[in-house]
């Protein structure tokens, strides 16, 4: 079998353009480089370079094929070494994170971009949940850290650490042609007479509990994207995070509602984790990136 050193010598010859240039780059004698390539060709049973028709060694068709595989092998080895080095330094091999659906997309993208650049060897598993679903995954040990909204009834759970990471403004909105939008200024109780679009909670921690529900008639949706689409279609009204509907408000597709009994509010976001299994270096850094 070819050795890793032989493959690296082969790749260096290709990159440098000649045996002599590869020898200088590797700080070896040219004869040593030539011998390594000759042995590699003998072991594989093919000629990797055409040395006859040109002054500089050119890859043969077999050499082109071997080149692609050699790069795959050396890249995989480099990744393995980097990952093992990280493990020896206490870095996690994999991080499971769960984010609240209300977290602005821009903050998520910026945080994950920074995470990828800082921890290229750490595999990431990302979950997106609403309401008590974030805390549920942390409690069940599915996720090591989560970004959760502050929800009444579970804010004082034992064994859960919390770190404040910011707020998101929630606005009551509807399509421009919705009756609540057309009315401009609504009387107290007007919101109860119209369908309110509400996120459903799939967790057992806050199951059957309502947060910010005013309407007597509700449609419960599994994801925020569906709620957003139905709001723009004029089917009901509901609360939405300001960053997600900013363009809709600017363009007039959605209108911020004037409702005495459904005012805008701040949705507090906290990083949560189990105190008996605190996040490691990579997971802890996500809290800094998301802030």
What is the fold's blueprint, element by element?
Layout: H1 4-16, H2 19-26, H3 30-44, E1 49-50, E2 58-59, H4 61-88, E3 94-100, H5 105-118, E4 123-129, H6 133-139, E5 145-149, E6 160-175, H7 179-182, E7 196-199, E8 218-221, H8 224-232, E9 238-241, H9 242-251, E10 254-256, E11 265-274, H10 281-290
Helix pairs in contact: 1-2, 1-3, 1-4, 2-3, 5-10
Characterization of this structure:
The structure is a single chain. This protein has helices at 4-16, 19-26, 30-44, 61-88, 105-118, 133-139, 179-182, 224-232, 242-251, 281-290; strands at residues 49-50, 58-59, 94-100, 123-129, 145-149, 160-175, 196-199, 218-221, 238-241, 254-256, 265-274. β1 (49-50) and β2 form a beta hairpin. The model has no long low-confidence stretch (mean pLDDT 81). 41% of the residues lie in helices and 22% in strands. The protein has 3 domains: 4-88, Arc Repressor Mutant, subunit A, CATH 1.10.10; 94-166 and 269-290, D-Maltodextrin-Binding Protein, domain 2; 167-267, D-Maltodextrin-Binding Protein, domain 2 (3-Layer(aba) Sandwich), CATH 3.40.190. It is built from 10 helices and 11 strands. The protein is of the alpha/beta class and 291 residues long.
Tally of helical runs: 10
The helix fraction, in percent, is: 40-55%
How many domains? The number is 3
Task: Return residue spans where pLDDT drops below 50 for at least 5 consecutive residues.
Answer: none
The SSE string, one letter per element, is: HHHEEHEHEHEEHEEHEHEEH
Strand content: 15-25%
Q: How does the helix and strand content classify structurally? A: alpha/beta
Radius of gyration: 29 Å
Gross morphology is elongated
- Using the coordinates shown, work out and report the CATH topology of the largest domain: D-Maltodextrin-Binding Protein, domain 2
Q: What is the averaged pLDDT score?
A: 81
CATH architecture of the largest domain, by name, is 3-Layer(aba) Sandwich
Q: How many strand units?
A: 11
Instruction: Please identify the top-level CATH class of the largest domain.
Output: Alpha Beta
Largest sheet: 7 strands, mixed
Tell me the distance between the termini.
50 Å
């Amino acid at each position: 079998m070819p050795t890793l050193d032989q493959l690296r010598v082969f790749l260096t010859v290709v990159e440098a353009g000649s045996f002599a240039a590869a020898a200088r780059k590797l700080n070896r004698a040219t004869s040593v480089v030539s011998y390594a390539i000759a042995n590699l060709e003998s072991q594989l049973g093919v000629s990797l370079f055409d040395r006859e028709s040109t002054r500089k060694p050119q890859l043969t068709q077999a050499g082109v094929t071997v080149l692609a595989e050699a790069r795959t092998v050396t890249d995989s080895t480099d990744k393995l070494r980097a990952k093992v080095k990280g493990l020896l330094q206490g870095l996690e091999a994999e991080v499971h994170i769960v984010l609240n659906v209300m977290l602005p997309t821009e903050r998520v993208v910026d945080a994950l971009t920074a995470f990828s650049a800082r921890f290229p060897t750490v595999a990431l598993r990302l979950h997106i949940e609403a309401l008590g679903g974030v805390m549920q995954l942390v409690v069940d040990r599915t996720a090591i850290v989560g970004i959760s909204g502050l929800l009444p009834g579970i804010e004082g759970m034992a064994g859960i650490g919390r770190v404040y990471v910011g707020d998101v403004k929630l606005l009551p909105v509807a399509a421009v042609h919705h009756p609540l939008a057309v009315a401009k200024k609504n009387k107290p109780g007007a919101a109860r007479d119209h369908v309110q679009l509400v996120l459903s909670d799939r967790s057992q921690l806050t199951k059957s509990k309502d947060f910010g529900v005013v309407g007597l008639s509700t449609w419960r949706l599994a994801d925020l994207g569906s709620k957003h689409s139905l709001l723009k279609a004029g089917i009901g009204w509901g609360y939405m995070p300001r960053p997600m509907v900013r363009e809709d408000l600017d363009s007039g597709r959605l209108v911020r509602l004037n409702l005495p009994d459904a005012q805008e509010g701040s949705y507090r976001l906290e990083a949560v984790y189990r105190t008996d299994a605190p996040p490691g270096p990579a997971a802890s850094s996500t809290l800094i990136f998301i802030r």
